[in-house]
Amino acid sequence: MARISRYRRHRLAGPVLLLIALSTVGAGFSMARAETTKVVAAQSDKATLIAEGKEIFARGCSSCHGLNAEGAGIAPSLIGVGAASVDFQVATGRMPMADMSQQAMRKRPVYNEREIAALAAYVASLAPGPAAVTNEELAWERDGNTAQGGELFRNNCAMCHNFAAQGGALTAGKYAPTLMGVEPRHIYEAMLTGPQAMPVFSDKVLTPQEKLSIIKWIKHAEEEPAIGGAALGRVGPVTEGLLAWVLGLGIFIGIAVWLTTKAR
Fold first, then answer.
1. Distance separating alpha carbons of residues 161 and 179, to the nearest angstrom
2. How many CB atoms sit inside 10 A of residue 147's CB?
3. What is the pLDDT of residues 8-63, one digit of tens each?
4. Which of 78, 105, 130, 257 pairs as cysteine with 82 (C-beta 3.0–4.6 A)?
């Protein structure tokens, strides 16, 4: 303590302490200013993205969904659907579509990633809704459980997409598409938003971890080899039996016709 007291009485103690205080305040101010600049820049980027999205929407979507996304006679309102719905529909090529009376099919997207992000940001700015996700954000390989995902899929999804996630027919001319080759982010967003005939699986129905488990099981099913030869859509013995009967009977009928022709 005596040594410290001695240094406090030194003639340079005051200037040194003042220099330290000024340096600390300056460093703190610089850090705060840098963070503020980052926040302002992020807000500016977001505002720019929303403005771009509004322009794209007015040009390519408003004719069906209305000028303010309020919906029209042929297309629903997009207010409150969130960025996840836009990312799923547009990034999978389902939207825009020419005939709204038909079920939207997965195809090559019309817009690029920047334009899709802008559209999603604009729709998300209209009202709160499920946020879009990226493949990098979904740690399904680490956090998912294949066995749990298989059980959840059979209980919640197999009645439409079939037990092998190959897709299947529904009523009124609709169908559940195959899940093979679908990006993880789009599977996740589909569960969040419930596109078309699909129900919404909110986080209260299926937790985020359970959704990741379902994705992990689907990706495991993609890589599963067809040990028995031709998979035939993996829809079970009905298809296999039908093929055997049609092909088998066709061969026998062909042989019978050929023998009858030869006999004449």
1. 8
2. 11
3. 555 666 666 667 776 777 676 667 665 654 544 456 788 999 999 999 999 999 99
4. 130
Burial 28-63 (b: 16+ CB within 10 A, else e): eeeeeeeeeeeeeeeeeeeeebbebbbebbeebbbe
How far apart (Å, rounded) are the C-alpha atoms in residues 251 and 242? 14
Q: What's at 25, amino acid-wise? A: V
What residues pair up with 176 in beta bridges, in sequence order? 168
User: Measured between alpha carbons, how far is 94 from 97 in angstroms, rounded to an integer?
Assistant: 6
What is the residue extent of each domain of the chain?
28-132, 134-237
**Interior angle at CA 75, CA 73 and CA 77, nearest 5:** 100
CATH architecture of 28-132: Orthogonal Bundle (1.10)
DSSP state of 228: T
Which residues have C-beta within 8 Å of that of residue 107, sequence separation ≥ 6?
92, 93, 94
CATH 1.10.760.10 for domain 134-237: yes
